[in-house]
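Appendix B, example 12.
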Amino acid sequence: MAFKAAHSLFVILSAASMLTVCSANRGWSNGFNKTYQWPWGHKNESHNSNNTNDDNGPNKIIVGGSDNWRFGFNYSVWAFKNAPFYVNDVLVFKYDAPNDTVFPHSVYQLPNLWSYLRCDLSRAKMIANFVLKRWLPYYFACGERGGLHCREGRMKFMVLPLLRRWHF
């Protein structure tokens, strides 16, 4: 019975998380749920404000914008506000070098939703800048202090990149 309850909870959490990912990548259709209907985020058909590329090619996106990659910034909210992301976009992680007042940071790609939800870095892969190569969910977190930056510092986010619309 406990296994069935745990399995049901996992399925519900997975479905809710995927709904969140899909909602975070709003503006993906041709008439339904246009971004100008949302009271936050960008108000037109252009990509997010952290985009450093103005053409229809891959975007180079600075994670966190001018806040960069730092403790205490909510990257899940940032990802939601800066969606949609597209296949072949490049995520750029910028952070200050550690010193007496700045803790060291790192960036890890987590293997799955369960690792993301638990900030479990045991099977995560350290990365630098990252290309969203395929249409699948990606999970990112800071790996410092045994996952403390992920759990308490809100240094984690997930994206599901969309296929880019082709204009002929």
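Strands lie at 60-62, 90-92, 108-110, 125-126, 130-131, 138-141, 156-159. The first strand starts at residue 60 and ends at 62.
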